[in-house]
TrEMBL record:
It is found in: Cell membrane. This is ABC transporter, permease protein. InterPro entries: BP-dep_ABC_trans_perm, MetI-like, MetI-like_sf. The chain crosses the membrane at residues 14-35, 76-100, 112-133, 153-171, 209-231, 251-275. Residues 77-275 form the ABC transmembrane type-1 domain. The keyword Secreted does not apply. It is a multi-pass membrane protein. SUPFAM superfamilies: MetI-like (SSF161098). It holds the Pfam family BPD_transp_1. GO terms for cellular component: plasma membrane. Keywords: Cell membrane, Membrane, Transmembrane, Transmembrane helix, Transport.
């Protein structure tokens, strides 16, 4: 009986390792292929005898220069950095106090606010982008300005506002798991509610905050539909990549096209590698009771 149980555990581990290995290969191979293709010449893409898995014979690093300068990917990159950083700051500035209050305090209408936040999880922002555009366009006409469209700050504000339900849901769930003893000790030492939140509770929730930052960074960085609808002239990196792919595919400059893909992917990969340990903590500690 014991031998059969031991054999079953070994087989289950083997199956899990095989599945994880297959998943890792399915992710690593396409990413590695894009990096490899980004330094290839056009002659290495076209032809009946061309092996698509062959290493580049003479790496063409000029593909990145052409993507950055000629296709204005550098300008788009800066726009995306500004919008994403501003959106994350606005999001955390609103979501941290809101999630802390909803998780740790009892007050009137708390159930209604929680229900509103949960309802926001089921709203896909892509379905309401046209009403948002019409509302901002009407605001321009009403006030006689061109402020509400083609504005990086408002684009970042819309990103932050549409991500509030998901962020509050994650952070409030984490705040609920933190022991009340820390707050009680802070109150005894003379700390008020605001100081307790900023000095004690928010630093303790750092793993969950990093998880939220990473998820929302991926969403803001790769977003295309809202930026395409609301922006005209201050293109983000996703919009620039779409234009680059259309132009270079027509001109059969595949190396430059893949170089643009690498420019978009690289910040995400670097951020994930930098916060991988904290991300794991944030995804596991949130389920533990203090």
């Amino acid at each position: 009986m014991k031998k059969s149980n031991g054999l079953g555990k070994i087989l289950s581990k083997i199956i899990i390792y095989i599945a994880l290995f297959a998943l890792a290969i399915s992710i690593i191979v396409p990413v590695g292929w894009v990096f490899m293709a980004s330094v290839k010449r056009n002659a290495e893409f076209i032809g009946a005898d061309i092996n698509p898995w062959a290493l580049p014979t003479d790496p063409r690093w000029e593909n990145f220069k052409q993507a950055f300068v000629d296709a204005r990917m550098g300008e788009f990159f800066l726009n995306s950095v500004m919008v994403t950083a501003l959106a994350l700051c606005l999001l955390l500035l609103i979501a941290l106090p809101a999630s802390y209050v909803l998780a740790r305090f009892n007050f009137k209408c708390k159930g209604i606010l929680n229900l509103a936040c949960m309802a926001g999880l089921f709203i896909n922002v892509n379905y309401i982008v046209v009403p948002i555009f019409l509302m901002l366009s009407d605001a321009n006409k009403t006030f006689g300005v061109d402020f509400f469209l083609n504005n990086r700050f408002l684009l970042a504000l819309i990103y932050a506002a549409t991500s509030l339900p998901f962020t509050i849901y994650l952070l409030s769930g984490y705040f609920k798991t933190l022991p009340k003893g820390f707050e009680e000790a802070a109150y005894i030492d003379g700390c008020g509610y605001f100081k307790t939140m900023t000095k004690i509770m928010i630093p303790m929730a750092k793993p969950s905050i990093i998880t939220v930052i990473l998820f929302n960074f991926l969403s803001f960085w790769n977003e295309y539909i809202i930026a395409y609808t609301l922006m005209d002239g201050h293109d983000t990196l996703a919009m620039g990549l779409k234009n680059l792919m259309a132009v270079e595919k027509t001109a059969t400059n595949y190396g430059i096209m893949y170089a643009g893909l690498v420019i978009v992917m690289l910040p995400t990969l670097i951020l994930y590698i930098a916060v991988q340990k904290r991300l794991t903590e944030g995804m596991t500690l949130g389920g533990l009771k203090g």
